[in-house]
Amino acid sequence: MSDERETLTYELFGTAVRELAQQVVNSGFEPDVVLAIARGGLGLGMGLGYALDVKNLSAVNVEFYTGIDERLDVPIMLPPTPAAIDLSGLKVLIADDVSDSGRTLELVRSFFADHVAEARIAVIYEKPRTIVHADYVWRHTDLWINFPWSTEPPLVDRRGGLAH
Q1: Is 72 a domain residue?
Q2: Please, are residues 76 and 64 in contact by the beta-carbon 8 Å criterion?
Q3: Per its UniProt entry, which superkingdom is the organism in (predicted)?
Q4: Mean pLDDT per 10-residue section of the chain, whose length is 164 residues
């Protein structure tokens, strides 16, 4: 893996949110709910909710990545999961930070597919190898991405107390 990285700053994140929201508006799609994929999609989901004036926000927690370019064999939806019936008949905008392999987005989209009126996907980054192409993409890259919220190590190590 190359040491070269795509770097997203908080300032660029704000730009990405507004430009993605404008793509949604330009397409004519009016979501009833923004469904953020935690953890990476939470900030985007909140930003899109404000930019699109959608107050109905929800989140689903999916674990897939365990480190830099390290992942589980398959993504796992962690509890609590929103009841699919709660989204019945609604137009849903799924928000995530990146569509890398696309397997997380595939899991979430298929989980809700039979219950929603329509689902579209917005991501900050999309990689060429993804199996799920988002409807709204801010940037395309094949590099590892340094997100402003995950570049620095945590202040607390939940497996062993305070981080050093």
Answers
A1: yes
A2: yes
A3: Bacteria
A4: 85 98 98 94 97 95 63 65 76 96 91 91 98 98 93 79 54
